[in-house]
Every structure is written in structure tokens, then in C-alpha cells.
Amino acid sequence: MQHQITAKLGLGLALLALTTLAPAAAPRAERTLISSGSKWEALAGYSRAVVQGDWIFVSGTVGASPDGSIPADFDAQMDNIFAILGDTLEQAGAALDDIVRVRCYLVDDVYLDRMSPKLREYLGDVRPANTTVIVKLAVMGALIEIEVTALRQRTLDPVR
After folding, report:
1. How far is the CA of 151 from the CAs of 26, 90, 126, in angstroms?
2. What angle do CA 101, 55, 28 make, to 5 degrees?
3. Which of 5, 7, 43, 51 has a 20 to 30 Å separation from 68 between CA atoms?
4. Domains of the chain, start order
5. Segment 94-122, tens digit of pLDDT
């Protein structure tokens, strides 16, 4: 009987010590949503990007021109994608050199040889982690879609 009391008392003291000595939960980093104004964001319930602390998560981006059309040329689509990514990251107080992860979705593996030099052109020595998969894209005419994750390396206030 005394052993049971001692065990319960020991467990109670251990729990008390854990709750009083445990560090307080870290405050949650501010979350900012960045919108491109696209009708698809409202319809599908997503954001162009989400900024959580210094992390920036940019949704999949296709190479649409400013007028919304998709150029037939692969390189033009890549150029448009990186223009959009650059603008989005700038709104978050970051830049292309803050990218740490890239996910590329290609409609056909014949574009691999054209994708790689374009990634080097825009990301240079950044050399982020990269995953590339072959898929059927939801946007008619899109040959590639790219999504990125960035870690802001400088202390800039995001543009809101």
C-alpha cells in the first residue's frame, strides 16, 4: 500500500515539475497572405503565397503573361514564372536567392534539358533542393509549373 502511495506521489511530483519547469510555448510567428488578385485564388481558397515568420511558401506558378495568356514557348513560360516568383518574393521581403526548395512540374520529360539551364540562369549559385515530376497540368497550354519555398535571410518588412 505504501509503495502505491509513494509511486503516485512520485508521479504527481514529476508532473508538477514538468509543468512548472517546462519552457513556455514559443509565440506564433505572424502569418501574412499574399494575393495576386487572381479569380482562382478566391474560387479555390488559396493564396499566391503564405509568409510565416521568415518562411515563404509560394503556390505553384505557371508561365502566364500579364494579360493571362500562356505563351507556347517553353523558355517564355520559364521567364514569366520567374518574373512572377520574383515579384511575389519581393512582396514578402525576400528575393530569388532566398529560395531553399523548388518543385517543378513538367508536362513531358522532353523539357528537362531546357528547364535545367533556365533554373541555373535564375537561381545561379543558390542551388536549392529540387524535385521535378512529370504530370498533367490543370492549366491548358502550361508546359511547366513551379512552386517554391524560401527562407528570408534579411530583415525587411513585407510589403502589404
Report:
1. 19, 12, 12
2. 145
3. 51
4. 29-151 (3.30.1330.40)
5. 999 999 999 999 999 999 999 999 999 99
Cβ within 8 Å of residue 21, ≥6 positions away = none
DSSP letter for 160, please: -
73 near 110, Cβ under 8 Å? no
Show Cβ contacts of residue 124 under 8 Å, excluding neighbours closer than 6 positions.
Answer: 97
- Summarised one tens digit per residue, pLDDT across range 28-71 is 778 999 998 887 788 888 999 999 999 999 999 999 998 889 99
| Cell numbers linked to 30 | 505572424
Distance in angstroms (rounded) separating the CA atoms of residues 102 and 117: 15
The three cell numbers of residue 28 are 506564433
Cell numbers for 80, please give them.
514569366
Q: Any idea what DSSP says for residue 157? A: P
